[in-house]
Amino acid sequence: MTTPDHLEDTYVAALHHDLADISPEATLVGVVRRPTGWFRTTVDENYPSLGPPADLLDEFKQRHEDFKMQGMCDEGAHNAAWDEVGFEDRYRTHLSEAADAQEAVAEVTDRLRDDEHLVFVCFENIDQKRCHRTLLIDHITEQL
């Protein structure tokens, strides 16, 4: 499966510190369920429904903190929590079954078919941690 050339992703800190090589024509699309104020000012728009569902986020964050309290490093705790809560399967189910996510996926897919250059943005640096952006890009690519 090949990702379209006009679909990319990055994380918000990379944008803040000029670490991301993004075309000026690209639209920065947040895919965050609970964007902070500074996140909103960094992206052009945000699709909360493309972020993980609230119950999954809450459970994931709690397990992440639990693992850190047990002495795991942040990256290790993040990835262990990801596995323990079944993040990947639950997020894929959200994209396939939640009406608001399906609507957002259809809209983004239409925009890509019209050759709009989109960059998905959230908080995680995927060089170190797993992130829903990767799953989202796979899902969108399958739709194309």
Beta-strand percentage?
A: 5-15%
Secondary-structure content class? alpha/beta
Radius of gyration, whole Å: 15 Å
Terminal Cα span: 10 Å
Overall tally of domains:
1
Please bin the fraction of helical residues.
40-55%
Main sheet characteristics: 4 strands, parallel
**What is the β-strand count?**
4
pLDDT averaged over residues: 94
H/E series, N to C?
EHEHEHHHHEH
In the predicted model, the low-confidence regions spanning at least 5 consecutive residues are none
Report strand order across the widest sheet: 1-4-2-3
So how many helices?
Answer: 7
User: Shape from CA axes?
Assistant: globular
Question: Would you mind describing this structure in some detail?
Answer:
The protein is α/β, with parallel strands linked by helices and 144 residues long. Helix content is 53%, strand content 11%. The protein has a four-stranded parallel sheet. Helix 3 (54-69) packs across helix 4, helix 5 (87-97) packs across helix 6 and helix 5 (87-97) crosses helix 7. It is globular.
